[in-house]
């Protein structure tokens, strides 16, 4: 048995030959016009695969296959227990292929192999298991009519669902959309981000191996303006679920309006506040989680706790603790199992984050730690974990989503001021509150405008609780039974007795 060290993962990576075609109607296919794009590794700079560059003709073919499979009913109208068995088998296949799937995400977007292997892949498998279990546990309704009628309210799949996802958690984000959409009985088209298409293609292959009928899950790698837009505008897609930036989320609303009024669900950006009150008893835990909340996944997390609001009386003491916790997130080779911060997704995004660091300096914030772009091995897509104090609410680093390892610290002197600062954002995805006063915890949680408020932790997440935002973080919820609502419609059948 080899030690699973850097050399082990480097050798596995060198031997990898990922599938890179589109997956349509149960088989790998080139793009109809034969075009490809390079999927490259931000850590080595090497091309991992030449990937099918899907466009409108491929989307048309996938919609035709999806609609045919939906109408055939082998999945959409099968016994819920049959769906459960297939989704459970897929969950097991994900576990069986964990090394390969973790490597694909690690190489495609630079996340640490340990995170991909210990967090992303198990979470993805668990999610398929969770929705598999839901399939045969949900009951429909009988409405309380008078004695002369029986009114059934039944839940039906919407039909053909498209999912367009970002690159920060490639496999996880695919599962957040695909698992509930399939559990509800739909046929699905999935467009992964151009930076990270490979694990989605493998997911589709494994789904077929698990017994999913042809055409029920189709994967279309390609560019947003091509494959993504074609999905948004397609007249025969019934529902589109998007995770990505607020700017592109708005475009999907326009695509829907310009085409067939398809349902659109949006999970967009965030600038989540993390409020630390002086009455928090465990400041060590708060500092540990504050560091995790911004530096995990290189800060490329939509719900990252990117604004730290600290009560003035404990500010300096808390920052000392935070600086100590940051040490764990020094960047390193993503294939080293000890690494906790890998590369950012690519050079362009690294430069964008550097631009925010420059704006923080220019607008007068104090750079307390980090701020440098690093070269490690062949790559310069590494950024030091960065900490700004003395941030004021008008600064860009306090207002805009950076999507990198950059934390902005603001001070407050009262609960009312903390709430006002926290809610002073166009976003409303997540928030965290650290306090040991029960009444304060409830009082503050109630008025924070966010889809999830974590108390004495950050970024609380579980398959059983809904995740999503308000304001310009979007609408609709992923995860939990509520996600099924997005991919189902209600039918009333009124029987006059
Ligand atoms: P983008 O919005 O740029 O892209 C997301 C997806 O949309 C990609 O698949 C992209 O394709 C596609 N896309 C891009 N342009 C278009 C277009 N004109 N028409 C149709 N589709 C298009 O986001 P990023 O990939 O840069 O991801 C980062 C963003 O995602 C952050 O803002 C982050 O907050 C958000 N996010 C939100 C989450 C949430 O749950 N709320 C979770 C994770 C991330 P392509 O890759 O080819 O450009």
Automatic annotation (TrEMBL):
<dbReference type="InterPro" id="IPR029510">
    <property type="entry name" value="Ald_DH_CS_GLU"/>
</dbReference>
<feature type="active site">
    <location>
        <position position="267"/>
    </location>
</feature>
<comment type="similarity">
    <text>Belongs to the aldehyde dehydrogenase family.</text>
</comment>
<keyword id="KW-0560">Oxidoreductase</keyword>
<feature type="domain" description="Aldehyde dehydrogenase">
    <location>
        <begin position="34"/>
        <end position="492"/>
    </location>
</feature>
<dbReference type="InterPro" id="IPR016163">
    <property type="entry name" value="Ald_DH_C"/>
</dbReference>
<dbReference type="GO" id="GO:0004030">
    <property type="term" value="F:aldehyde dehydrogenase [NAD(P)+] activity"/>
</dbReference>
<dbReference type="InterPro" id="IPR016161">
    <property type="entry name" value="Ald_DH/histidinol_DH"/>
</dbReference>
<dbReference type="InterPro" id="IPR016160">
    <property type="entry name" value="Ald_DH_CS_CYS"/>
</dbReference>
<dbReference type="InterPro" id="IPR015590">
    <property type="entry name" value="Aldehyde_DH_dom"/>
</dbReference>
<protein>
    <submittedName>
        <fullName>Aldehyde dehydrogenase</fullName>
    </submittedName>
</protein>
<dbReference type="InterPro" id="IPR016162">
    <property type="entry name" value="Ald_DH_N"/>
</dbReference>
<dbReference type="Pfam" id="PF00171">
    <property type="entry name" value="Aldedh"/>
</dbReference>
């Amino acid at each position: 048995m080899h030690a699973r060290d850097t050399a082990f993962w480097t050798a596995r990576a060198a031997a990898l030959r990922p599938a890179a075609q589109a997956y349509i109607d149960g088989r790998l296919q080139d793009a109809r016009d034969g075009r490809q794009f390079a999927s490259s590794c931000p850590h080595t700079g090497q091309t991992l695969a030449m990937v099918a560059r899907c466009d409108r003709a491929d989307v048309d073919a996938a919609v035709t296959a999806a609609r045919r499979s939906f109408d055939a009913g082998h999945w959409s109208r099968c016994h819920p227990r049959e769906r459960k068995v297939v989704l459970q088998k897929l969950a097991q296949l994900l576990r069986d292929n964990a090394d390969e799937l973790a490597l694909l995400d690690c190489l495609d977007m630079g996340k640490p192999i340990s995170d991909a292997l210990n967090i992303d892949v198990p979470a993805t498998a668990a999610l398929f298991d969770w929705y598999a279990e839901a399939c045969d546990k949900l009951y429909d309704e009988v409405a309380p009519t008078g004695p002369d009628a029986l009114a059934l309210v039944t839940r039906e799949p919407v039909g053909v669902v498209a999912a367009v996802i970002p690159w920060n958690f490639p496999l996880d984000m695919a599962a957040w959309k695909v698992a509930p959409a399939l559990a509800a009985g739909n046929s699905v088209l999935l467009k992964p981000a151009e930076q990270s298409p490979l694990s989605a293609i493998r997911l589709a292959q494994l789904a077929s191996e698990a017994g999913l009928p042809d055409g029920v899950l189709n994967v279309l790698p390609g560019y947003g303006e091509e494959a993504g837009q074609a999905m948004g505008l397609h007249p025969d897609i019934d529902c589109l679920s998007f995770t990505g930036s607020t700017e592109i989320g708005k475009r999907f609303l326009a695509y829907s309006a310009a085409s067939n009024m398809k349902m659109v669900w949006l999970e967009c950006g965030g600038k989540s506040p993390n409020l630390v009150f002086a009455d928090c008893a465990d400041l060590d835990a708060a500092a540990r989680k504050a560091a995790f909340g911004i530096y995990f996944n290189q800060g490329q997390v939509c719900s990252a706790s990117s604004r730290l609001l600290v009560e003035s009386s404990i500010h300096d003491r808390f920052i000392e603790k935070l600086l100590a916790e940051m040490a764990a997130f020094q960047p390193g080779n993503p294939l080293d199992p000890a690494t906790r911060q890998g590369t950012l997704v690519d050079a362009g995004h690294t430069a964008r984050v550097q631009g925010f660091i420059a704006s923080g300096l220019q607008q007068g914030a104090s750079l307390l730690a980090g701020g440098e772009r690093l070269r490690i091995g062949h790559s310069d897509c590494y950024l030091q974990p960065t900490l700004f104090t003395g941030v004021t609410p008008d600064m860009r680093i306090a207002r805009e989503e950076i999507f990198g390892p950059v934390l902005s610290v603001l001070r407050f002197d009262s609960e009312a001021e903390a709430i006002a600062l926290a809610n002073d954002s166009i976003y409303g995805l997540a928030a965290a509150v650290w306090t040991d006063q029960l009444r304060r915890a409830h009082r503050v949680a109630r008025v924070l405008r966010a889809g999830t408020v974590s108390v004495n932790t950050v970024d609380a997440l579980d398959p059983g609780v809904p995740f999503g935002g308000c304001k310009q973080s979007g609408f609709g919820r992923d995860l939990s039974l509520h996600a099924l609502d997005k991919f189902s419609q209600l039918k009333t059948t009124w029987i006059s007795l």
